Write the structure tokens for this entry.
Amino acid sequence: MALLEVSNLNVYYGNIHALKGIDLIVNEGEIVSLIGANGAGKTTTLQTISGLLRSKAGSITFNGKDITKERAHNIVRLGIAQVPEGRRVFANLTVSDNVRLGAYTIKDSHENLKRDRKNFYDVFPRMRERKKQIAGTLSGGEQQMLAMGRALMSRPKLLILDEPSMGLSPLFVKEIFNTIKKLNEQGTTILLVEQNAKMALAISDRAYVLETGRISLGGEAKKLAENPRVKQAYLGA
Ligand SMILES: Nc1ncnc2c1ncn2[C@@H]1O[C@H](COP(=O)(O)OP(=O)(O)O)[C@@H](O)[C@H]1O
Ligand SMILES: [Mg+2]
């Protein structure tokens, strides 16, 4: 059984038919990438899965449950966390407060929550050094780490990342991709949207190519990276 199954998803913005029947699957333990040009519908797909946008037709099943009409905060409770495009940390709060707020859906002992925070700071040691720093003063790469960490505090089964490497320096891009791999190895399933198709395909098990609201290709990431059409359109070959 797939952890996430999206079928025939149709989403509109007014008269604009943004998603024209998207089908995709994410199995437990996988990293799955969604690649495509600007405006292809990647963010729309993610926002619909997270319950922030509504579909006109189609269905979304998560962990065996139909979540097509579920509200966003319930979707977080069910185990999907999204780091949105542009990160959006709470800029006026400290790193530490941002991390604490990430656990707002979790009802558990102080001890366990503390352990979660410790895990977070172990994965992102740079954040430990900056606990007291106001989040808005972090660099772009640091804000991305904080946003990822905050999402992880809700203990998601599925972590959804929208363009995590956007606007970051090459060094941070590498670090973000390494972190995604590490989180996956620790058991988090990942759905990744990236403009950096080369790096995304390199860490993914499978991938889909989105073109103007439709999936045009899908399959094993390694095979897609060898596909001449993908190479030409997305890998700068
Ligand atoms: N809020 C909106 N209102 C109207 N059209 C939108 C809105 N958001 C996105 N779109 C349109 O939907 C299409 C898909 O956008 P988006 O999902 O943001 O693409 P991507 O993330 O792949 O760049 C684009 O044509 C875009 O212009
Ligand atoms: Mg987008």
Remarks:
- DSSP finds ten helices and ten strands in the chain.
- The chain has one domain: 4-234.
